[in-house]
Every structure is written in structure tokens, then in C-alpha cells.
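User: My collaborator sent over this chain with a note saying "see what the structure looks like." That's all I know about it. Can you take a look?
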Amino acid sequence: QVHRGAIVYVKFNTKGTHLCSIGMGDSYNPSYTLCVYADRTRSPVGMDWSGHPMVLAVRDIGVTPVLVCHFIDRCQGSLDYDLFTGGTDRVYFWELDGKVLNKTKGMFDRTAKVQPQCSACTLGDALITGCANGQLYVWSGTKVRRVVPAHRGMVSTMQVVGEEKMVTGSRDGTIKIWDRSLEIIRTFDMKTMATQSSVKPYVRAVCMDRSLERIVVGLA
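Assistant: Without extra context I'll predict from the sequence alone. Here is the result:
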């Protein structure tokens, strides 16, 4: 057992070779922890895990709640880092050096204000995060280089399909499909599409197939 409290987030990297998890602390040590695993018997070919994960590294993050963890996979926009973690008011970029996780604090500015980072994905060569106020932050290294107005509420979920398209879902009840340059291709409004009046149209999760023809949506 690695984490002291509830596990709040898990994520595979793109190649399926590594897994990370975020765990809460307990009454003795309230600090959140980040853990990175590999499969000790996984074949280099294929995407299946054997079910025998090996802990590579563990690191305390701090008591500030962590909302998202994402493998950057050393994309062009953040070549020096392997992982991103976002919380209510702090973000960190992580480098996995053997069994050690080294962190660097993310930087905000006047345009990209400090706010909760709620979701993340890698589109093209850049890390993109979804914010509590509905904006998208595009990162270069550890700094925000572009701010994109996206939704009227929290960007709760993001997914990239085929490295060229991205779908986002928000608490405002909308789903948007984006191209690589972050231009909106199409918008769906779940407030008008939901068939049951008892269902709140808050989008919690989205998953688009590779043919870009169907989207599965999870609502609150």
C-alpha cells in the first residue's frame, strides 16, 4: 500500500508503459502523494498490463488538494518534464529521474491567473489544462503561454483523439470539439439534449471514438 488515504486520480501515459496515482493523506500526515508505477512483466509489444505493478517513485506533494495528474510524455512544449499535477492553487511539473521525482513549480502571470486546474491533456506538442473558470491554459515549459476562453463553467474533462482533435466537457453543460490550433469545430449543449429532466446537465466525463463520430458523455 503506497497511499495513506483515498486514491483520487489515476492515469496511464500514452504508450501504456507507466501509471501514476494521486492519493490523499490521513490524520497523521495530510499531505497528498504522487506515485509512479511500471509493469514488472509487461511485454514491450502491446498495451496490456500483467497485473503486477512495480512502484518506481513516490513523493509527497503537499496538503493542497490535487485535482489532476497527467503524463506529459516529454512533449515538445515541456521537454524536461514527465508529469504534470494541478491543484486548487498550485501546479507542479515533475521529472522522473530513476526512483526520484523532482518537481518544478508552474508559473502564472497577470493574463493566466492562479486558479484551480481541473483537467489536462496533450494536444500536438503542448500541454493544455482546463481551468475552474472555463478557460484553457496552453503551457510552454512551466509557464502559461496562451489563454483560450472555452466554457462558461469549470472544464471538468478533456480528451485528445488521434493527436489532432480534442474534446472538452464543462459544468456549464456543453461539450466542444477543437482542432489542433484550438479553433472550435462543433458544440453540443447537454441542457437541450438530455432526455431525463432529473439529470443535471453537468458534464463530468467525455470519451470520443477514433472515427470522431460518437461521444460518450457522463453527467452529474
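A starting point for your reply to your collaborator: The first helix runs from residue 190 to 193.
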